[in-house]
Write a structure and sequence with these properties.
Layout (H helix, E strand, L loop, with lengths): L4 E5 L5 H6 L3 H9 L1 E6 L6 H10 L3 H4 L5 E4 L4 E4 L11 H7 L3 E6 L2 H7 L5 E4 L5 H6 L10 H16 L3 E7 L3 H5 L5 H20 L4 E5 L5 E2 L2 E3 L1 H7 L4 E5 L7 H4 L5 E6 L5 H9 L4 E6 H8 L9 E5 L3 E3 L6 E3 L5 E2 L7 E7 L4 H5 L14
Parallel strand pairs: 1-7, 1-8, 5-6, 5-7, 10-15
Antiparallel strand pairs: 2-18, 3-4, 8-18, 9-17, 10-16, 11-12, 12-14, 13-14
Helix pairs in contact: 8-10
């Protein structure tokens, strides 16, 4: 009989959150299994990493490089929220082909839209309705820590009452990490309760393997730069600057992020605009799309013409002016400074198949099905 598997994709659970929290249940499981520092894929945002983990591969294979993309036909940014962008099978479709039913539990409706076509049971708190709303208690607000406990409660229910489901994937929200630093009392309480829920999950399915990782970490940010306004004011106008971190949940990040995809007015402007971007205080690097694709295993055609990466204290976005100071409690991600995340595995029957040379988050799941 194939072993049941539970994957916990703890959104925003950087290595520093793991280091500074107690989480006795998860530490006990890690001690019995394994834990190691791992890396998220750049850019450090949810779609790129969640899809990488759920497909077990780099973005240049699965085709997703953003939460938000530029649509040349409309001249506007649009959200990536459906499966039409995927270029390879997900773990859910591979499980189905192997005769294994799966469940996908998430806060965000877009996760179900992108990854959900082949799941037996898809549950998104943001869009819950019908029979699922009747079966599970109503979800807490999207902008809360409570929604993460609710998701794991649902996972426990499924593991107890649906033994036919052999693969459960739980995707939490990073709203608590956007709000609280790792050592804040509220953060410690959030992770304490998550730890209790993970302990209940193992009690509900002692036969199951448990894999825990994250899509990115989180850092405080001091300022936001509007790169389009900056370039225009210096005589190098660009066509569009996309913040790939942006999605519909603006309370998390205000639509800003630590990376930007730059679309040029003219291809011949690449050298001049790239040099200008690299001169901006707060811009750590600027690559052509081909350079970024090769360096980070990304689909080049999804990156615009240039890719700008922010330093640890900066994000990019759309503003009324060139630059804006951010609130003292503002926290965000997207840059190269949010790549450190944990890789935790427990109760794997053949751990060498999963953990051998695993470094990136998606390598934890790449051999599951």
């Amino acid at each position: 009989m194939r072993q049941r598997v539970v994957v916990g994709m703890l959104d925003g659970f950087g290595w520093d959150y793991w280091e500074r929290s107690e989480m006795p249940n998860l530490r006990r499981l890690a001690a019995a299994g394994s834990v190691s520092p791992g890396k998220a894929v750049f850019p450090t945002l949810t779609n790129v990493n969640n899809v990488s983990i759920a497909c077990g591969c780099w973005p240049d294979r699965h085709g997703v490089a953003t939460n938000c993309y530029f649509c040349p036909e409309s001249g506007t940014a649009k959200f990536l929220e459906d499966s039409s962008f995927l270029r390879c099978p997900t773990l859910f479709s591979r499980a189905s082909a192997a005769g294994v039913k799966s469940a996908l539990l998430t806060c965000k409706g877009k996760t179900l839209g992108i990854l959900g076509p082949d799941v037996e049971l898809g549950l998104a708190a943001e869009t819950l309705s019908g029979n699922l709303l009747a079966r599970f208690r109503p979800p807490p607000p999207m902008y809360s820590a409570d929604i993460n406990y609710w998701l794991w409660d649902c996972a426990v229910d499924i593991l107890r009452h649906r033994p036919d489901i052999g693969f459960v994937y739980v995707h939490t929200t990073d709203y608590p990490m956007h709000r609280w630093a790792p050592d804040a009392p509220e953060s410690l309480e959030h992770l304490r309760r998550l730890d209790e829920a993970i302990g209940e999950t193992v009690d509900a399915a002692p036969d199951a393997a448990l894999l825990i990782t994250a899509d990115h970490g989180m850092n405080p940010k001091a300022k936001c730069i509007d790169l389009a306004r900056f370039c225009s004011a210096r005589g190098k106008p660009i066509r569009f600057a996309v913040s790939p971190v942006a999605d519909r949940l603006l309370a998390h990040h205000g639509g800003h992020g630590g990376v930007s995809y730059i679309y040029l007015e003219r291809p011949g402007d690449a050298d001049a605009v790239g040099a200008l971007l690299r001169s901006v205080p707060g811009v750590e690097a600027a690559w052509t799309s081909a350079e970024a694709a090769a360096r980070f295993h990304l689909p080049a055609e999804c990156l615009g013409d240039l890719v700008a990466a922010a330093d640890k204290n900066t994000v990019f976005g759309t503003l009324d002016g060139e630059e804006q100071a951010l609130a003292g409690d503002y926290r965000n991600h997207g840059s190269l400074h949010e790549v450190d995340i944990p890789l935790i595995a427990y109760n794997l029957r053949r751990p060498e198949r999963i953990l051998e040379k695993a470094l990136y988050n998606f390598e934890l799941t790449s051999r599951l099905f």
